[in-house]
Amino acid sequence: xxxxxxxxxxxxxxxxxxxxxxxxxxxxxxxxxxxxxxxxxxxxxxxxxxxxxxxxxxxxxxxxxxxxxxxxxxxxxxxxxxxxxxxxxxxxxxxxxxxxxxxxxxxxxxxxxxxxxxxxxxxxxxxxxxxxxxxxxxxxxxxxxxxxxxxxxxxxxxxxxxxxxxxxxxxxxxxxxxxxxxxxxxxxxxxxxxxxxxxxxxxxxxxxxxxxxxxxxxxxxxxxxxxxxxxxxxxxxxxxxxxxxxxxxxxxxxxxxxxxxxxxxxxxxxxxxxxxxxxxxxxxxxxxxxxxxxxxxxxxxxxxxxxxxxxxxxxxxxxxxxxxxxxxxxxxxxxxxxxxxxxxxxxxxxxxxxxxxxxxxxxxxxxxxxxxxxxxxxxxxxxxxxxxxxxxxxxxxxxxxxxxxxxxxxxxxxxxxxxxxxxxxxxxxxxxxxxxxxxxxxxxxxxxxxxxxxxxxxxxxxxxxxxxxxxxxxxxxxxxxxxxxxxxxxxxxxxxxxxxxxxxxxxxxxxxxxxxxxxxxxxxxxxxxxxxxxxxxxxxxxxxxxxxxxxxxxxxxxxxxxxxxxxxxxxxxxxxxxxxxxxxxxxxxxxxxxxxxxxxxxxxxxxxxxxxxxxxxxxxxxxxxxxxxxxxxxxxxxxxxxxxxxxxxxxxxxxxxxxxxxxxxxxxxxxxxxxxxxxxxxxxxxxxxxxxxxxxxxxxxxxxxxxxxxxxxxxxxxxxxxxxxxxxxxxxxxxxxxxxxxxxxxxxxxxxxxxxxxxxxxxxxxxxxxxxxxxxxxxxxxxxxxxxxxxxxxxxxxxxxxxxxxxxxxxxxxxxxxxxxxxxxxxxxxxxxxxxxxxxxxxxxxxxxxxxxxxxxxxxxxxxxxxxxxxxxxxxxxxxxxxxxxxxxxxxxxxxxxxxxxxxxxxxxxxxxxxxxxxxxxxxxxxxxxxxxxxxxxxxxxxxxxxxxxxxxxxxxxxxxxxxxxxxxxxxxxxxxxxxxxxxxxxxxxxxxxxxxxxxxxxxxxxxxxxxxxxxxxxxxxxxxxxxxxxxxxxxxxxxxxxxxxxxxxxxxxxxxxxxxxxxxxxxxxxxxxxxxxxxx
Amino acid sequence: xxxxxxxxxxxxxxxxxxxxxxxxxxxxxxxxxxxxxxxxxxxxxxxxxxxxxxxxxxxxxxxxxxxxxxxxxxxxxxxxxxxxxxxxxxxxxxxxxxxxxxxxxxxxxxxxxxxxxxxxxxxxxxxxxxxxxxxxxxxxxxxxxxxxxxxxxxxxxxxxxxxxxxxxxxxxxxxxxxxxxxxxxxxxxxxxxxxxxxxxxxxxxxxxxxxxxxxxxxxxxxxxxx
Lengths: 1081, 226
Known about the structure:
The complex is a heterodimer.
Chain A: H1 3-13, H2 15-54, E1 59-62, E2 68-69, E3 80-93, E4 99-108, H3 110-114, E5 129-133, H4 134-140, E6 147-153, E7 171-182, E8 201-205, H5 206-213, E9 218-219, E10 221-225, H6 232-242, E11 250-255, E12 260-265, H7 272-281, E13 286-298, E14 301-311, E15 326-329, H8 330-336, E16 343-352, E17 356-370, H9 410-419, E18 425-428, H10 429-436, E19 445-449, H11 455-465, E20 474-476, H12 478-487, H13 492-521, H14 523-531, H15 536-577, H16 592-619, H17 622-628, H18 641-657, H19 659-693, H20 699-709, H21 711-733, E21 754-757, E22 786-791, E23 809-813, H22 815-821, E24 826-829, E25 846-851, H23 852-859, E26 866-870, E27 876-885, E28 893-897, H24 898-904, E29 913-916, H25 922-932, E30 939-942, H26 943-986, H27 988-996, H28 1001-1031, H29 1037-1080
Helix pairs in contact in A: 1-15, 2-12, 2-13, 2-15, 2-16, 13-16, 13-26, 14-17, 15-16, 15-26, 18-19, 19-20, 19-21, 19-28, 20-28, 21-26, 21-28, 21-29, 26-29, 27-29, 28-29
Chain B: E1 2-13, E2 16-28, E3 33-37, H1 44-51, E4 59-64, E5 67-68, H2 74-84, E6 85-88, H3 100-105, H4 117-130, H5 146-158, E7 164-168, H6 176-193, E8 196-200, H7 204-210, E9 212-217, E10 220-224
Parallel strand pairs in B: 3-8, 3-9, 6-7, 7-8
Antiparallel strand pairs in B: 1-2, 1-4, 4-5, 9-10
Helix pairs in contact in B: 5-6
């Protein structure tokens, strides 16, 4: 017989006894591997989603609200490219009442499908045909051949809230038959947003969409497949080499009368950066600002709606040198009856704040009058203002600002007919910059003397100096970013491991305990082997080998079970992110490395625990082991327990006090652990005191003695119950509840009843429609405060997004308004700042407030840290996290000050989110909002619903935690039952003696129940106290209040569960005890 | 064979120390069989454990077959027990998962035996034959009577050809007739194998049959004359 066969013989002989160890190993391995597999599955899911979302697209050229030639894609040579015209719309099925807002409409051609995932041949939609993705089809319940209606705002070359941007709003309605429903394999998932959630998408032939919005031949996105793996800079250089001035939105026009060539922007105002670059290249370039004056007045007379031009005398030789007043043309001088020395007033529209159009005025002395001839009569001074330049007559002007056509006189029409937008007044450039400059730019043209080159030469020079970035065209490594976000997603393996910690610990402890029981049972065998001269190390090695065999077999079995367990966990996650009856999001996946490391890791962990509990046995002397049998022999030692209890309690309280340093989670767990250990030390101390106290023998005294006799087992029982209670109570207390305080300004809803998100951006405040940015019109008076928010760069970083978001979405709003209202709970701010929204306007860099949950769990950053964003021109700029918010509707976004935001994104579209205050009756108010804002594709949610949705996700995590914790408690309690059963079995002769000497069974039963009750009581007490003290700093009074009933219920359930298992063990062993009694008798 | 001088053993407990053996001297010649008697708790098993290198004395020295065993490391003590000693316990301590033959062969599990495995197995069979269990080699312990278990334990104690066998109340659980048979067996094996034996017993009849008897009382050993 060899050692191996001895081990195998032992395994086989004690197979029944080892079943528990095997089951425990399998359970523990299942939990560990399940968590790891869940992590693998989520990663694989996100990777897969990123793959189908991006297809073969590596990079994207994006211009935001800027357009470029779709033919640019043809010029990209070896870089496979596809132009896209991207819009947002509201979609509905004709004849159906349902509609969906925020639908992405993609104008595409065949090249788009070539960049799709896989190698499927797929034809682009033709003619009036639309394709929709299956998410939209499911959402609208629409099928092939049904007619889909799209409503969207016609995009403009310049932001709608810019002055003189043209028509304020123009709705386009486009309908078409659904030709195909695209699944993930057919690029139906395409989206540039880093999220696992599908976006409702309609694919439209690009030419049709271009025609519909009046941007023939243009696109605003270009997808690129970077076959040659060019770097981002190289790709940008490639794009630059193919760009024309048209792509940059620039043009050069000859101005013969000025003997100059004029650089113009299709966006009217030349970007500051472009203007600076041109002036640097051509120092002699003369800036020109032509703007509309609402009124020019003098001597009690006025001229309505006239163009005025600000410039230097170098740009117009007819102007006096160093002129400080204004020069009128002869027509205007005559109209006003004004001459040199008179004072002229100019009334014009300007932007107040960031979006409110107000009338301002200025007065200047007249320093000259020029005849309406030559350069002074040149129509080219006026840029092609949308809605103005092409108007047949003045009454047709649609300049995007309020115009009172009644003021327009016959002579004004005649002037328009004869001279179009020829300026009637010239003023100094610097004055013009002050009056008409805005965030989109200052100059409407730069005139370069013809002496410096022909038009073509200037154009070439301009092309040479321009870069896509300068024109706001940015190349993004969309694949790199998408894959990085997918691979570095929330660590679900870690999350589930954390959640399963107690369950796993219970399984490991139970397994180790069962193994130890088994080893104790074989104490005499070990003693004998030792006596026969088998080295103790060898005996230990055999025991460990037996353990290893069991653990490995259990772990392998656990790996199979883990597959099912993972599906259970993924099912839980699916409840958060599932899209109705759509396909399941999560894909089961396991990496071989994970499987191997999981099995080995768990085996090593369990073997370590087994070694720890077994080596103690090996240290005992042979004689002791031969004599003691299964009896626990504790080493008598000086009682240090009171000190230990006090020390651990002090550590726990210290951890709570230092939660600022450790973080709330770290402090919670450390404090919890320390308080649990303190409780166990206190129990041990009390137990020893009771045992040593002596006194009359009673069932209670017997129970104390028995608990003290097997101290370790008693501690295991108390510890198991305490840990279970701690975990379940603590987690239950963290459960989020919606309460009714959302009306209060300091609540997470900020006192706003509704969160409204529109498909089309709001325009600026009209001069006559103050405080109605949401466009509520007559309904405005039904509501209180309305807070508009602009949506900026970045991705949703709320708990709905599983991807790792490096740049959360920026939400820009009027921080002064928030400060005035005192809305939303500001939890912390950076040192040196006031706890106020006003602090968003402080400091050198852009500051942001963010929900604490987002900061902690998604961004994993601290207060004061910075996140780098790219501005409109692709330049990096930092955003400092200056404060945290406590559970607000802003979860997943950085809230920044609008004015600062617009400095970096001057072309940003208007607000698309509105927080709206309302009265108590929400449903009628919601109906009004939905009706009023239907044209803009608004989705109206109550703030309470939004908060509840966030809480729903968090509560689902908590539910998983609780289910796993609950399973842990059950496993722990089952272990407790096993301990009881084992205890009773070991003491069967003791009970038989008691019975023999006439002690009634009822007394014996009472002794056993008192022992169990003592352990459960102490376990409950220690667990509840440790949990409540640990969570106290993290809870608001309302949180505790709403959770208290739930907590009491859970505690009672745990106690009942533990009592059940002990009772079960008693009943189970009772028959064996009786047979033992007969044997004894 | 056994030379113990000034042997003492003290058990320390909090606030109390119990002196079990107190300056005990003992000499047993090779091939002798001696009985050790005394009241319960007098330290008989303690003395046996010390002689068997299962425990360490608090003072004094023990030489077995000329070797001082008090300075042994645990590994040396294990090797010494495995090669030179045989133990017979009152509880027999047979391993339930092993057959009778395998139980006898258990000491070989220590490894590094010079004797080939076949030789040991042959000897185990012979020993079992001699103790009357030649027909029950494949039986498991639970299939044996108390006497058969003890005889298996006796065979196991001799399988390593020990120079000293220490038996702790081997007949404690047996009736008189069975005890007599065990006594016969031990004495027969002593004669045939020439092995030294020390038998702890309460059984006066057994002690008388053994011959030389020591009585342990108050930590001291005293030879009892007929």
